[in-house]
Each structure stands twice: as C-alpha cells, then as structure tokens.
Amino acid sequence: MRLSVSKSLLPLFAFAIAAPLPAHAQAPAATPGAPAEEMPRIRISDPNRDLFRLAIPNVTGDPALAGEALAIQRRALEVMGLFNLLNPASFPPALQAEGMGFSSANWTTVGAQGVVKLSAARAGASVQVEGRLYQVGRGEAAVLSRTFRGESLRPLVLQWINEVIGQLTGKPGVFGSRIAFALTGPKSEIGSVGAEGSDMKTLTRMNSDCLMPAYSPTGNQIAFTSYLRGTPDLWVVAAGGGRARAISKRPGMNSGAVFTRDGNEILATLSYEGNAELYRINAQDGRVLDRLTRSPFIDMSASLSPDGSQVAFVSDRGGSPQIYLMPAAGGTPKRLTFQGGNNTTPRFSPRADKPQIAFTGRDERGAFDVFVYDLQTQRIERITQGQGSNQSPDWSPDGRLLVYASSRGGLYVMNPETRREAQIFRGRVNSPSWGPAPRP
Hints:
Elements: H1 9-14, E1 52-55, E2 60-61, H2 63-80, E3 83-85, H3 93-96, H4 104-108, E4 114-123, E5 126-135, E6 144-150, H5 153-169, E7 178-183, E8 190-194, E9 201-202, E10 210-215, E11 221-226, E12 233-238, E13 245-248, E14 254-259, E15 265-270, E16 277-282, E17 288-291, E18 299-304, E19 310-315, E20 322-327, E21 334-335, E22 343-348, E23 356-362, E24 368-374, E25 380-382, E26 390-395, E27 402-406, E28 410-415, E29 420-425, E30 429-434
Helix pairs in contact: 2-5
C-alpha cells in the first residue's frame, strides 16, 4: 500500500521534532515502547572565561561609511562567538582618536589583548577598506595588514573579518556565506540571509508551502520540497532566486534532499514504491539511481558524512524516530541514539577531524533542543536548553558554528565551544541550511 503523505508527517520526521541523546556510551538496543532515558542537561560556567579580549575602536575615513563598517565588523565577530569584545565606552578619547596607529602600552590599560583597526573610504566609483590587526605585547607593528577594494562595503569588511579570525585562530571565518531557510508564516517560501544576518532574500515564488532547503556543494543551487501540486515534490532553484524547476514529482513523498559532494546526485526520501525509503537520484533530471533502504518503516532526513562514505538518517524502525547510520552505498543501519523518544534532523559536521552529528531532540519535559552526537566517543552533548524550542540545526562550512530555528522567533547561531549565541534573523522559519564558504 502506498504511503499517504500529509504536511504534518514531514515535520514529524524531517523537520525538528526530535529527541536528545545520552551523555554516555551507546546503550543496548531499546525495546519498542519502553520509556526513554532523560536527555543530558547543560551546566555552563562563565561563558566569558578565557576568551580573547578584542577591542574594536571607531572606524576612520569617510564618515558616511565609518558607522556602517564598524557595525558590520562588530556584528560578525559577535556571531563568531570566539571573542570577548570590549565595551567601547571603556576606551579613552585618546585611544578612539588614535587612527590606524597603535600604542601597545595604552591598550593594555583597558585590558585588550588584540585591537582591530579599520579605515573605509571612497575610491572613485569603488570602496576601499584598509584593515590592521594589532596584538598587545607584540610590539607596535600590525600582525595583519590588508587593503580591499570593491563595489560595496559589506563584502570587503566581511573579507577583512574572515582574515582577522584566521590570524587569531588559524582558520579563516566564513562570513559572506549564506543560510537558506523555510519561511513558515503566511508567506511559506524559501528565503536566505547572510551568515551575520544581512541581506535577507525571498528566493521562491511558489505560493505554496516550501520546506527543507539544501544547498548544492558549489552554493549555486538550492533543492527544496514544495506542495505546489498538493503533495510533496522536489524542486531546485538558483541560489539567487528565480524560476524553480521540479526534479521529482513521483506519487507520494519526494522530500528531504541532500546533494552528494560532487553535486551530481541527491539523496532523498521517496515513497512511490509504497514505503518512505531513501533513494539516490540524478540531480538534473531526478532519475532513480539506487534505493538505499529497505524496511517496512519510515526512513527520512538523510545527511552525508564529509567524505561521502556514510549516511545518517531518521527512522522509526525502533518504535520512535531515532538517528541511524549506514554506508552511503546502502547496507545494514546502526542505531546511534537511545535516549529521548524523538530524535530527528541529523546533520554531519563538515569537519572530518571531528566527526559529529547535530540533531534535534525532545527531552522528558517535551522541549525540543539541539544536541551533538560525537561519533568517536559515542557521547551526546546538549547545545541548547531552557530557551523555548530549538530545532533543525545545521553546521557552518568550517564546522565551528551551528544555526537553528527557535520558537523565540527566527534563526540563531551558536558557537558550541563558547556557548555564545546570536539571533541573526527574526521571523517564523524552519529548516536552515548553511551554504558553502565564500570564495577567497
């Protein structure tokens, strides 16, 4: 019998109705219907402890550009969540008026360990940004000095901030990348926003419920599910918006797309053969290339490992939605989560050196939150707690940040290591997908 698909079924398994996992090693197989163990709790010490203290004085140059440039760089560094940004009210007038020069002794008095200097000015029809990064105690010379020129201010400042992050951490930032999401209010379309919350765009004009966007590896396309015909079909739209094209309109369910690393194929959930199973299809024309799962249960919400060798997905084959892992070519799945009665939306971290899966979990109090499963230690860490429901996590392209939708209204980004959280978009949204890092 063919699976009947309603709009309420997709959120149940593929959105963010999920259950948190354990804080210890993998448990033995659970008995269907048995009560779930409690999810781990968060215990946070001072989130400011040991963070690098960074000062951002006023931007010099063109007054018409200075205020905006200052706001852009401060916002990006706030979202990054790696630094303790000093309050500019503590900077004496002499430091604010220092220009692009630097006095290490003077900045020591306000507790700075690093100082970011920026100048922005018009250069004919272009904008020129000059940035310098100083580290207190390393002399008066800048440890990083860059000049950028382009048509608009924001991309130049974000490029500068990415280099500052790279200088201080060994890995550049990813600002300039974009995050796609499903608008879930009266206007249910696919939208996108810059990683620091700028330049929101509505990408589709389907006039129907649009769900679960997923960027292609190059970032030039977004696959998504739409109910334009009354049932869930797979569509693709250009990342900048435009006319979408359908790639899978088979009877029943066509949903939960994720691109393979080369962008030529898509993993998706189809039910045209009767049950909701995972398939591999051609990304251009939707031809079925392989069927990956075969079970009498619902298998959905695939996520590929960074090397493309493994697939994490959601199945209710154990009695409730849980996270499973199997080879990308198909094979016997291994159950990963045992705590919590509803665990969904798995997303592999792009960091091969730190194999992790973020997912949505529901705890014993009925709250949905973000959790991370460590594939090496088999331990689960709770990322959000006590602030509404937080669902559908996805990783930044460098694996250092998580974005998720929250019942507080909109998208939030958190650095899991420092627990710094920032709201980057306000509105009714779900299913964020973080696109690739910007090209240098």
